[in-house]
Design goal:
- This protein is α/β, with parallel strands linked by helices.
- The protein has two domains: 169 residues, Hypothetical protein af1432; 155 residues, Beta Polymerase, domain 2 (2-Layer Sandwich), CATH 3.30.460.
- It is 52% helix and 13% strand.
- The chain has a four-stranded mixed β-sheet with strand order 4-3-2-5, sandwiched between helices. Strands 1-6 form a two-stranded parallel ribbon.
Length: 338
């Protein structure tokens, strides 16, 4: 069976995956549940009782099959988590339930948390604690139950990352090329970013050669809290040397006091390089990055017009963005209008 892991020699060397074995373990694990149903952590059944019920059901299912011993051994392997494949398969099994919950939420099929009077699950102390901690949806409860299980696994960090992506995005729009990750800012972090970026933006606004400034919040591999990219668009009359020296000064001044663990990049580009009719990949990327950005100011209105016209086109690139809470770009816009 084809797998993306077949193309990553490093992952194969570290994990020694057998994808076919994982699929077999998952399939056999589900066999017993066809008889007893899917037992949840809220059903009042201990893990030992759950295993006993599943094993008995599996024995009934395999009957006198010639390979019944192999089937039962695979079920025991899944339960005891004795192999890399069984541990990976367990995460896949849990992730399926998490994804199903988010699918229901994004389809509008979950009842609100205020409409759960007959749901005995809400009597659980775990659930009550999550509600006190701010859970607002049924999926928030699933997320709260499973995220730490995934986080505790150093071998498979992808599951925690996947659940975060699913939490912060509508599952039906994940194929549009734009994925957002929510990052909570403290009051101090938000104030610092707004104040310091505001100084940079004010200086750029007062520069006659700067026509437009926009901000993109993106995710990079170096910082799990993401990065803020401020792009200033200048007229063609300014030389590369001029804006490179200004870029270095602005960036250096900002980073002297930056204690937020959020990268801030300040870049310059030419207005003339932004066009609705893109002739090469770099031009396409410029315009599509602009679509997913917040325009802080646009003196001529040209860039706003380009962005509005370009929104009707599909995305050709994959964007991994950060949704900062509270939003930095919105605060900057409000402050600029005062």
């Amino acid at each position: 069976m084809d797998s993306e892991f077949d193309y990553n020699e490093k992952i194969n060397a570290e994990r020694n995956f057998e994808i076919d074995e994982i699929i077999k373990l998952l399939a056999i694990h589900e066999v017993g549940e066809t008889l007893i149903g899917d037992i949840t952590p809220f059903d009042g059944i201990t893990p030992e009782q759950k295993k006993e019920m599943e094993h008995k059901a599996m024995i009934d299912v395999v009957g006198n099959l010639s390979d019944k011993r192999k089937f039962l051994d695979s079920l025991f392997e899944f339960d005891e988590q004795l192999s890399t494949e069984s541990r990976f398969a367990r995460f896949c099994d849990k992730m399926e339930a998490d994804l199903q919950s988010k699918l229901y939420q994004d389809s509008g099929l979950h009842r609100s948390l205020d409409d759960q009077s007959n749901n005995f699950i809400f009597e659980s102390s775990k659930v009550q604690q999550m509600l006190e901690d701010g859970a607002q949806t049924i999926f928030d409860l699933w997320y709260g139950l499973d995220i730490n299980i995934y986080k505790d696994s150093f071998a498979f960090p992808e599951f925690a990352n996947m659940l975060k992506v699913v939490r912060d995005n509508n599952i039906f729009t994940l194929n549009n090329g734009v994925i957002k990750q929510k990052v909570e800012l403290s009051v101090e972090e938000h104030k610092f970013l707004v104040d310091e970026l505001g100084k940079v933006i004010k200086a750029l606004q007062d520069d006659d050669k700067v026509d437009c400034v926009y901000i993109t919040n993106y995710q990079d591999q170096e910082n799990d809290r993401g990065a803020i990219c401020l792009v200033a668009l200048v007229s063609d009359t300014i030389s590369d040397a001029n804006y490179e020296s200004l870029k270095e000064k602005l960036h250096s001044d900002f980073e002297k006091n930056n204690t937020t663990n959020i990268s801030v990049n300040i870049n310059f580009d030419y207005v003339s390089k932004y066009s609705v009719i893109a002739l090469n990949p770099s031009e396409v990327y410029r315009v599509e990055r602009l679509i997913e950005s917040s325009i802080i100011f646009d003196k001529s209105g040209k860039i706003t017009e380009v962005r509005d016209k370009s929104k009707k086109y599909g995305h050709l690139y994959s964007f991994h963005l950060v949704d900062y809470k509270p939003p930095v770009d919105e605060s900057l816009l409000l402050n600029l209008k005062k």
